[in-house]
Amino acid sequence: MENSHEAIIATEEFEAVQEEMARRKELGRAYSDKAFHSKIICGDCGGFYGRKVWHSTDEYKSVIFQCNLKFKNMKRCATPTLTEDEIKQSFLVAYNDLMGNRSTVLADCELIRQTLCDTTTLDAEMQQEQDEMIVVSELMQAHIKKNASVAQSQEAYALETERIENRYNAAFEHYTALETEKEKRTRKSKEIGTFITTLKKQPLAITEWNERLWITLLDTATV
User: Fold this and answer.
1) Per residue in 201-220, pLDDT tens?
2) Are 152 and 159 in contact (CB under 8 A)?
3) Which of 116, 119, 110 is nearest to 193 (CA)?
4) DSSP letter at 53?
5) Which of 137, 136, 116 minimizes the C-alpha distance to 189?
6) Is the pLDDT of residue 30 over 70?
7) pLDDT (tens digit, 9 = 90+) per residue, 104-122?
8) CA angle (190 as vertex; 188, 196 as ends), nearest 5
9) How far apart are CA 112 and CA 192, in angstroms?
């Protein structure tokens, strides 16, 4: 039953977590409760940073994060190794800088949403292709009906059939591409909307690590 009691987690935060799970699935990475997985990207090669354990069997044991491909490429990535504390501190600084300009950021996000996520033109083109497919389908029906009632060259009939099929397929393929683009823009619009709603509710400054904010506000961070 919806809206029967106060939510334990805000709707936009729940949606953000679902989007994060979908993002990791799309990247081919299994979902994990580890906050830094699939979040930090190497600026040199585009690979993900991963958790590594140094000196795992002695007193100098430490946990660090570095590019997973750092030693797998012919040219080693020059991006630095990071500790968990360094990542957290960098996020605190970035968050406070962001919130210091919150009104500007929100206005820019809304402009991006209206400009890049608009589907008006796509909707019009999709309707045109739908109309085209209807027309071509009717042409094919008339073509088949004529062949059944009027003697004609079957070679010419086959060529005309192929021409009509190609016309239909072209319209269908274009429609499918437009539909995919619309879904992409709609999804992005929702993501930006969730970001805007979440950002409006957050404190203007934080002094300690907040994993919830890291998950809900950050897509990826490039080192």
Assistant:
1) 999 999 999 998 998 888 88
2) no
3) 110
4) E
5) 116
6) no
7) 999 999 999 999 999 999 9
8) 105
9) 9
- Distance separating alpha carbons of residues 171 and 174, to the nearest angstrom: 5
Confidence grade of residue 71 (pLDDT, cut at 50, 70, 90)? confident
Under a CB-based contact definition with an 8 Å cutoff, are residues 215 and 91 in contact? no
54 Cβ neighbours under 8 A, 6+ residues apart? 60, 61, 62, 63, 64
Which amino acid does the sequence have at 164?
A: I
User: In terms of DSSP H, where are the helices of the chain?
Assistant: 11-26, 84-100, 102-116, 120-149, 154-200, 211-217
Q: Angle, to 10 degrees, between the axis of helix 154-200 and the axis of helix 102-116?
A: 170
Residue linked to tokens 């490429």: 73
Q: Of 64, 79, 96, nearest to 209 (Cα)? A: 96
Residue type, 159: L
Angle ∠(60,63,97) on CA atoms, nearest 5? 130
| Two structure tokens written together for 10 | 């805000």
Q: Which two tokens stand for residue 6?
A: 């106060």
> What global pTM score does this model have?
0.68
Pull the structure tokens for residue 56.
Answer: 């795992």
State how far the alpha carbon of 50 is from the alpha carbons of 58, 209, 222, in Å: 21, 19, 13
Beta-bridged to residue 41, according to DSSP, are 48, 222
Which amino acid would we find at residue 124?
A
